From TrEMBL:
<feature type="domain" description="EAL">
    <location>
        <begin position="23"/>
        <end position="272"/>
    </location>
</feature>
<protein>
    <submittedName>
        <fullName>Diguanylate cyclase (GGDEF) domain-containing protein</fullName>
    </submittedName>
</protein>
């Protein structure tokens, strides 16, 4: 019996170390991922019902891992934050998204095409962030008006005053700032009013409920009217169905992003 227990413990230990080995491997390979050019950006269109046209793309990072295959950001962004690698990765994202979008603008003669870039909390509090953003614009030749920076409420609430300062530095250049995942945090009219932003994105969890049996559209309705009263643009994310669109349009939301139009795809599959 004593032997059995010992064996069982050994098996448990082996399993644990297997998982830990994978995590360690992921962490270590993260250090070489940039140099090895393993990151790619996928792009998902943002569509305007007013013009029935794609006005821009959101860039979404993927990691082409040599052993684990294509990894979505949920698998490595927090790891990249823990290790501090997110700063360098974020710079690469900015540079890559700006260069690609400028290329599309020229090739397709669409000078107004926009690109939205997600920031992580660490990037947002980096005092060098505005300079890094400006440099990506200068290096690529993309105009500030074509760049959208997406931040979340939780990022803003970490240090409200400093966040506003950063947002103003970006907006003074002409860069747009959008508030992502709106509605899932501690949104309130009083602080939304004080934020220097151009648009809010309604989180997918609310859009998903439209047309469902036990739907709670009160939040969607409130977000749209709140945004309108503040003169903000509203973009709905996670739009998957026709009825999402007809409902949102009826409520006065004319900008959409979601699988209904396209999943995020690599740049070479984007048709302008
Ligand atoms: P997010 O900014 O809220 O991005 C939207 C997510 O919803 C994306 O997941 C997108 O693929 C997914 N999505 C879009 N339309 C639909 C739809 O109709 N239905 C459903 N079910 N999902 C839809 P993804 O690409 O896995 O990204 C997850 C999150 O990772 C993003 O959420 C964002 O917070 C973060 N992320 C992505 N790229 C970057 C990046 O370059 N830097 C940083 N810091 N974070 C990033
Ligand atoms: Ca986003
Ligand atoms: Ca979002
Ligand atoms: Ca979201």
């Amino acid at each position: 019996a004593k032997r059995d227990g010992k064996n069982r413990y050994a098996i448990y230990e082996e399993r644990m170390s297997e998982q830990m080995r994978e995590e360690l491997h992921l962490k270590q390979s993260l250090h070489h991922a940039l140099d090895n050019r393993e990151f790619v950006l996928h792009y998902q269109p943002q569509v305007s019902a007013r013009t029935s046209q794609v006005f821009g793309y959101e860039s979404l990072i993927r990691w082409n891992h040599p052993d684990f295959g294509v990894l979505s950001p949920n698998h490595f962004i927090s790891l990249a934050e823990e290790t501090g690698m997110i700063i360098e990765i974020g710079e690469w994202v900015l540079q890559e998204a700006c260069h690609q979008t400028r290329k599309w603008q020229v090739e397709a003669s669409q000078p107004d095409l926009k690109v939205a870039v997600n920031l992580s909390a660490q990037q947002f509090v980096d005092s060098m962030l505005p300079e890094k953003v400006f440099r990506a614009l200068e290096d690529s030749g993309l105009s500030p008006e074509s760049l959208i920076i997406e931040i979340t409420e939780t990022m803003v609430l970490q240090d409200f005053d400093r966040s506003i300062e950063t947002m103003e530095r970006l907006r003074n250049r002409g860069i747009k700032v959008h508030l992502d995942d709106f509605g899932v945090g501690f949104s309130s009219l009083s602080y939304l009013n004080r934020l220097p932003i151009d648009a809010i994105k309604i989180d997918r969890s609310f859009v998903r409920q439209i047309g469902e049996e036990k739907h709670d559209v009160a939040i969607v309705n409130a977000i749209i009217s709140m945004a309108k009263s503040l003169g903000l643009q509203v973009i709905a994310e996670g739009v998957e169905k026709k009825e999402h669109i007809s409902y949102l349009k009826r409520k006065g939301c004319y900008e959409y992003q979601g699988y209904y139009f396209s999943k995020p795809v690599p740049a070479h599959l984007v048709t302008l």
